[in-house]
Structure formats: structure tokens, C-alpha cells
Specification:
The chain folds into two domains: 7-113, 3-layer Sandwich (Rieske Iron-sulfur Protein), CATH 2.102.10; 125-304 and 319-335, Naphthalene 1,2-dioxygenase Alpha Subunit, Chain A, domain 1. The chain has five helices and 17 strands. The protein has helices at residues 145-152, 158-161, 198-204, 280-305, 321-338, and strands spanning 7-12, 21-25, 28-34, 40-44, 58-60, 63-65, 72-73, 79-81, 99-102, 105-109, 134-141, 177-181, 184-194, 210-219, 223-232, 246-258, 261-271. The strands form four sheets. Strands 11-17-16-15-14-13-12 form a seven-stranded antiparallel sheet, with helices on one face. Strands 5-6-7-8 form a four-stranded antiparallel sheet, with no helix packed on it. Strands 1-10-9 form a three-stranded antiparallel sheet, with no helix packed on it. The longest helix is centred in the C-terminal third of the chain and has 26 residues, at 280-305. The chain starts with 6 loop residues before the first strand and ends with a helix. The structure holds FE2/S2 (inorganic) cluster and fe (ii) ion (FE2). The site of fe (ii) ion has 6 residues, from helix 4.
Length: 341
């Protein structure tokens, strides 16, 4: 079960071309393509005639033509050509989804169209800001998106899963300060006078100890914003406000594919205290390595979860506070969407 009235990332902008792309989102087949005029379009990937996938078809100036019997659909999903007949019945259409291209990402709305408010799209403007060199990636996950959310909302795992990348021995005891807001939760954490994680030490070229911060937001249902960084220890003011820091404006953008698989997009805009932006490549490799470590444990967890007899529940601990809160909020959203009112 998914929250449907929400903006999800359907693709990176560069993935959407004049060659139709099939992608399953929230258990629905979707075709994405870019018109010759440059507009990105998302339609149900199932021709209403005999149900061939439209993603096998061809993009034309005013729409996409099905490869099977040649019907053409415009960007709103209306059929505009039926080879062999002149009249087009009104029911001859496929569903079109609101789609917004913004800051290098395509955002799709899979719920009720009249609720699709573009102001609710999470701000990721760092992704196409030239002042923020950015690494990016995509992972196809064989796991429910909430297991990935659980992972991102509990950094105690960094010490154990990411020993060579993001680890910091202090994480299990560095409980974040958690507050709720209308669209999710915020988590803040500072670890002062600590060893830099391997990734931060490399990216920031820190020699000695650092003050570390996380300023995070979980945007319901499935977007994780993590402004993380390190700065040489000592000095006045909050670590994230002091000069000489390494700033990582990370986003993990999760889009359910099915109940047991997820599209995981990530972006990692950075600013380096030394100004050498060539380091971005190594940062991207480090993040990809760390996320492969998460992927291995979470996919194994999903398989294990699937063996649970009915009525088996996880045993909570203190570090589950944030993920428990988000799971509760998601359940509430789904309950509200499904209530008759
Ligand atoms: S199935 Fe698409 S035109 Fe027949
Ligand atoms: Fe992780």
C-alpha cells in the first residue's frame, strides 16, 4: 500500500528522451518520453486498444504512436488518430500523470490529479546549481521502500555497515534531536571533537579532529534530505555555520516500484573547504560504495522479513524513534487517503 497523493521522482531529467522509457511506479506501468518540443510526458504504459505497452511505440511531434495497430495519443493521453477509422470514441484514451521537470529531476503525481500542487515538490535546487558540484546515482532495490527509509532514519547503522566509508564510532550514542512538522520530521545531530569519517576526511582533507553535523529532514512519504558536514574542531558558533567546513547536501529520493522493489535516486551536491572540485568524483564513488553496503544488508533483510510467520513484529529500541514516527505518519496518510471523506 502506498501514499498516492505525493510527488515522487520518476526519473532523472537526462533519462527522458524521444525514446520512450518504461518504468513501473507504485505498481503502475508508466511510459516516459520527451516530445520534440522538449516537454516530458508520463502516460499509462498500456494502450487502451489491446493493451500493448506504449513504451514500444514511437514519439511523434504531437504524441506517441502505439507500435501494434498505430493509434496515437497526445500528451494528455487522448487518442488523436485511429488508423482505419475517422471517428474517435471518447473512451479511447490512456491515463496521463502530472509531471514536472525541475532541477534535473522529473516529479510525478500518481494520485488524484486535482490535488497535484507543484508547491509541494521538495526543493532540491542544489542539484543544478553550478556552485555545488554534484555526484548522482540510481540503485534498483529488491526491497520495500520503507525498509530503506528505516535505514536512512537510523544512523546507528553507519558504525557497523559503513566501516570504510561513513563510519564514526560515536553514531549509536549520538541520538538526533527529532521534531515533527506538517510534512515530515526533522533530525539534527552534532558530534564534536571526533575523528572524521573516512569519506569526510578524504573529501575535506582534514588532518585532525572535526566537529560533525547532520541537519536532516524526512519529507513524507519518501524523501530524505541530509545536510551533513564536518569542520575542524573548536571555534565559535554552530559547526554548520563556521567557515572552513565540508558541506554535503545529500538527498535520497525513494520511489516505490512494487511492494518489494524500489527506485532509489540519490544526489550529493558538495562544497569543499579546499575548493578542489575534482574531489567530487571520489565522493561519488564513496557514496556509491556506502549505498551498495546498505543495499546488501537491506535486500537480505527483506528476504528474512519475508520468512516471518504472521504476527511477528520487530522489537523496537531507542534508535528506532525516528523511523517509528515516520512509519506512523505514513500509515496516517494512507488511512486518510482511503477514508471515504
Ligand atoms: S494495442 Fe495499441 S493500437 Fe492496438
Ligand atoms: Fe547506510
Amino acid at each position: 500500500m502506498f501514499v498516492r497523493n505525493a510527488w515522487y521522482v520518476a526519473a532523472f531529467s537526462h533519462e527522458c528522451t524521444d525514446r520512450p522509457m518504461a518504468r513501473t511506479l507504485l505498481d503502475e506501468p508508466v511510459v516516459l518520453f520527451r516530445t520534440p518540443a522538449g516537454q516530458c510526458v508520463a502516460l499509462q504504459d498500456r494502450c487502451c486498444h489491446r493493451f500493448a505497452p506504449l513504451s514500444l511505440g514511437d514519439v511523434e511531434a504531437d504524441g506517441i504512436r502505439c507500435r501494434y495497430h498505430g493509434m496515437k495519443f497526445n500528451s494528455r493521453g487522448a487518442c488523436i488518430d485511429i488508423p482505419g477509422q475517422n471517428t474517435i470514441p471518447p473512451k479511447m484514451c490512456v491515463r496521463s500523470f502530472p509531471l514536472v521537470e525541475r532541477h534535473g529531476l522529473l516529479w510525478i503525481w500518481m494520485g488524484e490529479t486535482h490535488h497535484a500542487n507543484e508547491e509541494l515538490i521538495v526543493d532540491v535546487h542544489w542539484n543544478d546549481d553550478p556552485d555545488w558540484p554534484t555526484a548522482r546515482g540510481y540503485i534498483h532495490y529488491q526491497a520495500n521502500y520503507q525498509l530503506i527509509a528505516d535505514n536512512l532514519l537510523d544512523f546507528s547503522h553507519l558504525t557497523f555497515v559503513h566501516r570504510t566509508t561513513l563510519a564514526n564510532a560515536a553514531f549509536p550514542n549520538a541520538h538526533p534531536h527529532i521534531t515533527s512538522f506538517e510534512r515530515g520530521i526533522r533530525l539534527t545531530r552534532e558530534i564534536l571533537d571526533c575523528e572524521a569519517s573516512p569519506l569526510h576526511a578524504m573529501a575535506g582533507r582534514f588532518q585532525g579532529k572535526v566537529d560533525f553535523w547532520n541537519r536532516q529532514a524526512w519529507w513524507l512519504p519518501s524523501i530524505f534530505e541530509n545536510w551533513a558536514g564536518s569542520v575542524p574542531t573548536g571555534g565559535d558558533g554552530a559547526p554548520h555555520e563556521r567557515p572552513g567546513g565540508l558541506h554535503l547536501r545529500h538527498f535520497s529520493l525513494l520511489t516505490p516500484e512494487t511492494e518489494k522493489s524500489t527506485h532509489y535516486f540519490w544526489i550529493q551536491p558538495c562544497q569543499f573547504p579546499h575548493g578542489d572540485i575534482s574531489v567530487i568524483e571520489a565522493v561519488g564513488q564513496g557514496i556509491a560504495k556506502a549505498f551498495a553496503e546498505d543495499n546488501a544488508i537491506i535486500e537480505a533483510q527483506q528476504k528474512s522479513w519475508d520468512t516471518c510467520p504472521p504476527g511477528t513484529h520487530p522489537q523496537p529500541v531507542r534508535n528506532d524513534a525516528a523511523l517509528g514516527r515516520v512509519r506512523f505518519m505514513i500509515e496516517e496518510l494512507i488511512r486518510l487517503e482511503q477514508s471515504p471523506a
